[in-house]
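User: Hey, my collaborator sent me this sequence without any context and asked if I could get a structure. I don't really work with proteins. Can you help?
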Amino acid sequence: MSATSPAVATAAGESPGRRALRRFLRHRLAVFGLVIVVAFILVAILAPVIAPYDPLQTSWSRIRRPPSWEFWMGTDENGRDVLSRVIWGARASLMAGVVSVLGALVIGVPLGLLAGLAGGWVDAIISRIADAMLSVPFLILAIALAAFLGPALENAMLAIAITASPVFVRLSRGMTLDAKSTDWIEASRALGNPPWRTAFVHVLPNIIPPLLVQATLAIAEAIIAEAALSFLGLGQQPPDPSWGSMLNSSQRFLTQAPWLSIFPGVTIMVVVLAFNLMGDGLRDALDPRSEKS
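Assistant: No problem. I've predicted the 3D structure and written it out in structure-token form, which is a compact way to encode the shape of the chain:
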């Protein structure tokens, strides 16, 4: 399968990367998701510049004001500007999503490569541990680990990374087993390359596309997990803004001040949807069997 894809690309006078980019740009929903993700990344980076107020500044004279021209998303129970807190909260949520998934990749991919190439009892131990972790619901395991590590954003990211790593173990192991039977892996071994070189130089570059797709989808799941942990008091700690902690504090005012929960909730939904749309587009664009173009 991998041998025919370069041939098709060469025949068309186009590299695989450019072909994948062209397919992705034809996926309108994926491009829309990418635009939303980039917009939120810029918002998180430029938070000190674009936030109209200090997200931690309280004022007893403007408690729970509804949305207006002065406060576009209203104010919370302590008189803090909700828009400013949503903008600054993007930093915690996006950082938690990206860092957690990077941590899951660092943990899961080497273990998956080791299991696929080594086989035998090494494969059995790694696979059974991954299966045991996957048998527990993702969010339940993340909550348990975060509670054990203690309430902090860094601990929440570590808990999410550990919880998400079995998916990458299984994926990288399966792709490694598939690549292990190919002629070019046998040729690499015949040339005397050590196992680590075979894994990271010859196998890993060929399994990056499915890992990239899974990582994009996992970021969306990690953002939801971070919001859930912050909602339970196990993530970002008050008064620092986080979408999950904002939802937690707003639950007491659902009838008196519904905007306190609507805006962070809608923000979470939009960001998660954008990452899922982008992941679907990447999956279609990087699939060598796709002949839509």
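In plain terms: Residues 82-118 form the longest helix (37 residues). You can pass these tokens on to your collaborator as they are.
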